[in-house]
Design a protein that fits this description.
391 residues, alpha/beta, L-arginine/glycine Amidinotransferase, Chain A, 3-stranded mixed β-sheet, 12 helices, 18 strands, 25% helix, Peptidyl-Arg-deiminase_porph, TAT_signal
Length: 391
């Protein structure tokens, strides 16, 4: 098999998903625009080592490495969306769920007709429920974004998922966030913007990062200015500052989600996946720009941000030859006691990524999984998981 060139990625990640169910894409929950602003949270040192926690009483989305009560996932069953790739994607979802379940509880939302298969493939350690129907598997984008207030209370925010700008059918997925909140039994608020969870990174201490291409986009937030969108993001997440990257619009279904490239490790600390020096495509240029911007940015409290590089693989050496493949080590998921990441078959880069993650997350087990079917679908492990923090 002839490996594709890095430039092939400009053809569009998740491209084959874009056409699937497009005619039905309009059936979504109307985005709420009247969400009241939250009080800005004052930060004080405490909690996790080297981290900060919101002032008691102010709801905010915590950093992802706080202790979780559980992980939420979704079971794909649509041949209209996935066609011949469905069985492979299901095997990847099951592998991820079973791996995370070694460290914390996992709930997988499945449609009634496919719940039995999900239970069989995921095993007894994973809880499968059939009361929250789904269209697809991207729980990071569709699921409830949980917030805590430091006093044992929790609520949830929905980002008004609209199928990545009405590119895919999403009548069920548009309701997943509020249905998960109801299942957990916490108050739910619709955010004052339309976005996806993978489009927004938070440090848990007032700082967000995102790409303009995904959020400041007429397919999600028509007629809204950057200032209006930024205010709505901060209100939803309990934050006070957004670090913006330009991103890449129209080349993949997400319009360039930030969680494939740049992540927060802690307040004042981040990681960016870097391309090979020889890579010159739009995605490589975007990653370099993200690194430059994040390295010179400051946190919500005015402090510097130390940025670590994680080297991406050589696309000539990975297993997949899919033009839509996303080989993102940065799309890892942090759960209780472990970091769940991907490996792509470039053994040298895979090993280096493992070493980098082990250094960045001391005391956590690094699990590297072959999730090539998901990668060919334009996503990764972080894309299909959503954490519920412990309170």
């Amino acid at each position: 098999m002839t490996p594709h060139t890095p430039d092939d990625r400009s053809l569009g990640r998740r491209r084959f998903l874009t056409a699937a169910g497009l005619a039905a894409a309009g059936a979504a929950v109307t985005a709420a625009t009247g969400s009241s602003a939250l009080a800005a949270a004052t930060r004080a040192p405490g909690g996790r080592s080297g981290a900060a926690q919101p002032l008691a009483g102010a709801f905010a989305v915590p950093a992802e490495d706080v202790r979780h009560a559980r992980t939420w996932m979704a079971w794909p069953d649509s041949t209209t969306i996935w066609k011949s790739k469905l069985s492979g994607v299901q095997s990847n979802i099951a592998l991820i769920a079973k791996t995370i379940a070694k460290y914390e509880p996992v709930i997988v939302c499945a449609n009634p007709a496919s719940a039995a298969k999900a239970r069989s493939m995921c095993g007894s350690a994973v809880t499968v429920i059939d009361t929250i129907p789904v269209d697809d598997c991207w729980m990071r984008d569709t699921g409830a974004v949980f917030r805590t207030d430091g006093t044992g209370r929790m609520d949830a925010v929905g980002l008004n998922f609209n199928g990545w700008g009405n590119r895919q059918t999403h009548a069920k997925d548009a309701l997943v966030a509020q249905r998960i909140a109801a299942y957990v039994g916490v108050p739910f608020t619709a955010a004052g913007l339309t976005a996806e969870g993978g489009a927004i990174e938070q440090d848990g201490a007032g700082t967000l990062m995102a790409t303009r291409s995904s959020i400041i986009n007429s397919n999600r937030n028509p007629g809204k200015s950057q200032a209006q969108i930024e205010a709505a993001m901060c209100a939803a997440y309990g934050a006070t500052k957004v670090i913006w990257f330009d991103g890449i619009a129209g080349q993949d279904i997400t319009d360039d989600h930030v969680d494939a490239t740049s992540r927060f490790l802690a307040p004042g600390s981040g990681v960016v996946q870097m391309p090979l020096a020889s890579d010159t495509d739009a995605w490589a240029q975007d990653a370099r720009k993200q690194y430059q911007i994040l390295s010179t940015a400051t946190t919500a409290t005015g402090g510097p941000i130390v940025v670590t590089k994680i080297q991406g693989p050589d696309y000539y050496k990975i297993r997949s030859t899919s033009a839509d493949f996303v080989a993102a080590y940065a799309n890892y998921y942090v759960c209780n006691g472990a970091v769940i990441s991907a490996q792509f078959g470039d053994t040298s880069a895979d090993s280096a990524a493992r070493s980098t993650l082990a250094r960045l997350f001391p005391g956590r087990t690094i699990e590297q999984l072959n999730i090539d079917y998901l990668g060919a679908g334009g996503g990764g492990i972080h894309c299909v998981t959503q954490q519920q923090p412990a309170v």
